[in-house]
Amino acid sequence: MRADAQRNATKLREAAAELFGERGLQVPLKEIARRAGVSHGTLYNLFGSREALIDEVVADLAAARLDEAARTALACDDPWSGFAGYVYRVCELQAVDPALGDVLTRRFPDASRLMGVCDRTFAAAAAVIERAQRAGVLRPDFTGEDLVLFLAAQAPIARASAGSGVWKRAVAFLLDGLRPATAHPLPAPPPTTGQMTRILTGGP
Amino acid sequence: MRADAQRNATKLREAAAELFGERGLQVPLKEIARRAGVSHGTLYNLFGSREALIDEVVADLAAARLDEAARTALACDDPWSGFAGYVYRVCELQAVDPALGDVLTRRFPDASRLMGVCDRTFAAAAAVIERAQRAGVLRPDFTGEDLVLFLAAQAPIARASAGSGVWKRAVAFLLDGLRPATAHPLPAPPPTTGQMTRILTGGP
DNA sequence: AGCCAAGTTGACCGCAGGGTCAACTTGCCG
DNA sequence: CGGCAAGTTGACCCTGCGGTCAACTTGGCT
């Protein structure tokens, strides 16, 4: 790869990181090219597709943050605090960085590394949940799918209320509903992972 | 108004009701015209704008359903059952009819009658909440704004999970978090109505 | 320095959406 | 039944998106 191509790729990665972070993963590619100061043709030449760019720019950063949240949660002595802190933290990440909100929704199935991050995060969330449930501090009928659906639903509100922290209230209401002592029977069976995916992607 | 214009307006209203109900209020106007079997020019000629069409087609129906839900809630002897049933009912309306989901989000500020429905619904929700709080069965720090934000966040999930009823789980978790006995202090002050509106519209 | 492959550019295509309007058709009244 | 206003049509404009590619520029090797 020639030096100028290297430079352009770097500029594009930087611009993409900025715009993804500001406005989510669906920002127009031409706008990324514009901010990077190169032609959009160059972007297509160097990356080929939005998914490839996402994989290069977002996947590692998202993985680092989400993995760290899971690690912190599991390292917490109190399983409930670990779980509650995890939910707050992931919501906060979504509030601060719109790109992270798009990770969990699986709206970019061709970004393979990102899908890997998504899968790992789902497994981590399940572990955090299970630990709390084994400790008897989290209602046993709450599933990983429930949590992901909650996070996905909150994402837009978290983004829009990043400054005021209003999203924290929704998390608090949820958490108060997840303690075993307060649990009432649920009106519907838990969604399968496939159902969850279909609901998230909006597809059939 | 000439007879053929009358007929076309009726066909357009029917087609709009169908498509709004199937796919929400942002359905392309040209598609409505296509389903009605008329030119899109006729649609613009007869209604002038999407908002006007919405006001004619959706506002009354939405008002009827939402008002009925509120009436039922207030007529319920048990304030908690009234409140809980109201939340379920509104979510169900959103699940069954995507157009209703778009009503609460205030995404069509120029549809004045629809905004009126929105305001009345907000007031009704506040009344349902207040009654339950006065009876001591609903935590006192839960506000109408909180409920609207919840409903707006759930709307896409309710739509996508209309068949399976998975959305009911989210409602159930919320309700279990709203009983006074289980309430923990909230991590953020309640949003003002203005904040809520800004969050819903995504705008500044 | 000279050359050529590597890289860049921006015009261009297709598509979809909102919106307009001159030319046409047609309901309806005298 | 004739004629005109009312109404309809679809071609057309604009914007903005993803994506392609021939023509140009330039890095860097010999």
Question: How would you characterize the overall build of this protein?
Answer:
Two copies of one chain form a homodimer. The first copy, chain A, is elongated and about 60 Å long. The longest helix of chain A is centred in the middle third of the chain and has 23 residues, at 112-134. Chain A folds into two domains: 3-50, Arc Repressor Mutant, subunit A (Orthogonal Bundle); 59-201, no CATH class. Chain A is mainly alpha-helical. The first copy, chain A, has eleven helices and no strands. Chains A and B meet through α9, α10 and α11 of A and α9, α10 and α11 of B. Chains A, B: Residues 6-65 form the HTH tetR-type domain. Chains A, B: This is TetR family transcriptional regulator. Chains A, B: Keywords: DNA-binding, Transcription, Transcription regulation.
Question: How helical, in percent, are the residues of chain A?
Answer: over 70%
Quickly count the helices of chain A.
11
> Can you tell me the residue ranges of chain A where pLDDT is under 50 for at least 5 consecutive residues?
none
| Domains of chain A, number | 2
Distance between the termini of chain A: 42 Å
Q: State the largest interface.
A: A-B, 40 and 41 residues
Tell me the series of helices and strands of chain A, N- to C-terminal: HHHHHHHHHHH
What Rg of chain A, in angstroms, do the CA atoms define? 19 Å
Strand content of chain A: under 5%
The secondary-structure class of chain A comes to mainly alpha
Shape of chain A: elongated
The largest β sheet of chain A comes out as:
none
Q: How many E-type strands of chain A?
A: 0
Please identify the oligomeric state: homodimer
Mean pLDDT of chain A: 97
